[in-house]
Automatic annotation (TrEMBL):
Name of the gene this protein is made from: Slc26a1
Name of one Pfam family that matches: Sulfate_transp
Protein name as it appears in the record: Sulfate transporter
Family: Belongs to the SLC26A/SulP transporter (TC 2.A.53) family.
Species: Formicarius rufipectus
Keyword vocabulary terms for this entry: Cell membrane, Glycoprotein, Membrane, Phosphoprotein, Transmembrane, Transmembrane helix, Transport
Amino acid sequence: FLMERKTHAKINRKEVMLAKLRKSCSCTPQKLKNFVMDFFPVLQWLPKYQCKEYIWGDVMSGLVIGIILVPQAIAYSLLAGLKPIYSLYTSFFANIIYFLMGTSRHVSVGIFSLISLMVGQVVDRELLLAGFDLNDDAPPASGDGSLQNDSLSNTTAFNLTIAGINAECGKECYAIGIATALTFVAGVYQVLMGIFRLGFVSMYLSESVLDGFATGASLTILTAQVKYLIGIKIPRSQGHGMLVITWINIFRNISQANLCDVITSAICIVVLVTAKELGDRYKHKLKFPLPTELVVIVVATLVSHYGKLNEVYASSVSGAIPTGFIPPKVPQFNLMLRVAVDALPLAIVSFVFTVSLSEMFAKKYAYTIRANQEMFAVGFCNIIPSFFHSFATSAALAKTLVKTSTGCQTQVSGVISAMVVLLVLLFLAPLFYSLQKCVLACIIIVSLRGALRKFKDVPARYHVNKMDTLVWVVTMSASALVSTEIGLLVGIVFSMLCIVVQTQRPRTALLGQIQDTGFYEDDLEYENLSPVPKVKIFRFEAPLYYANRNYFLKSLYRLTNLDPNLEAARRKKYEKKEKQHLKKENHRTANGLGIRETTLQLVPKEIDFQALIVDCSSISFLDTTGVNTLKEILKDYKNLNISVLLACCNPSVIDSLKRGGYFGRDFGSMQEMLFYSIHNAVLFAKDHK
């Protein structure tokens, strides 16, 4: 039977587009109110805030995250190649802006190790091109922590045109100028992606690509911190192959290791790892996680200060961290042009991590987020803070898990965390002057445990899906051995190539009938299947398009053991030989010269089926080449008196076949060529032998 298709009214796309344009361009008070409410989601949920129910969890989680943020902010400044004060600025402003604009109740937005690494690589490159020395291990200038003393500690100057005035800018000034320009451009990209609704870009970053990228970047981060762990002074490597070059320099200078830093690092790593493992094991008994990083930083700072480790053992310390806020400054346009290309992968990675975490926790706690608004939120978390000497931000998994485990209910907890950071900014920052850099490096390395544990998951990942494991390995290797940006690009391209390869050489099978049923399955995979007499059923498990056309034909000919073109040529040759022998027999009636034997040698191959059924249930679409391929096999098998029947075609495939003229001009033979189940096609083939 042939099912009757519904007739759909034709849509005038021009009218639809004009109507949407008129609606979007119109401005009414209600529409303006809705726009403001949508753009600042805090206006929707804050008036409904249930203070008695939510406030305790938000305050506790906010305090815990704030306590964790301070040491992480100071530590991640090493990755970004900037002073610790700028990391504190970043943490403060990101929490405030996401509180106003974010739609997730739980994610923690702020500094993130991978983002800090990507910023730091651009900063180092531009400093090197500008002629600055990348060695940041010079003894810090002593001072009272004021902004003036900190800014005067730069000894190398760089002439920079600011608002038409030629101003002198030192290394620190130029570094934060590069970081803010990069952050501003990344934020602009994210806002533009939100305006043009380009959130679908994140779909091309699969879980294997993201995990491989994170693991490869973690190896790079680990490598960059080793010199601080052992207290050697080597130049910060730049460009491709940074990981290998850095390790070569480390082994060349290993004899210069600072014994004080080595001992401090060993103690800190043991304490941090032990505390983390105990916290993971007994997390169900703890109401909130242990503030191990803060304890380690406080104790290490006191020991370093009173033990005078910098003066006596030449241990590298953080130096003066100013208090208060530096006056805002517009990011430099000429620097934006230099980093415009670098900002694109930064924008995509920042957005993808934020949205993926937001969706994960929204699903877990049964509420919804708006991905497009998340793009605006993270975009303005980059644009606005860039005027206040901050760098790029993103959501971070570790802090978000801590946030949820300590009772977070809304983003009010982010405001509490920002207040903790503000307290450090205004009063406590100078107290970290004597903090050793090796302690900060230990905090960074221990925070990478989650990403580095992905190596343990490789066998399980390989068991689940070999192709995904290959994508993970390639992305991780490229991110670690070449560069993070190249690694991300390689991962995306390689994962897409893997999909193309899988559609180019998909599974193919001949089907047999499950006994006493109307169902059919792969006879190589299942036992006790019955072949259908005089019928071959072929399944192709992929779209049929130009890239896999040849594989489709080769598989069909191999499994059916019949190439219709070769068989047709063999028959023509047989007919031609037969005619020649008949002519010879007419002229030579006296004696036949083995005509019967020659004829027997040229007898065409006996074909064991009279109908070919193509199971199209796995063919999601056809292009022009795919339609022409089906028309070709229809014609070729028809020449051998074999009928070709299609089964289980979806509506889009049927439409493609109609447009391609597969069923003829008037579709009269469609009922005899197209079937809605394999069993119907088999019954038809048996009835029309």
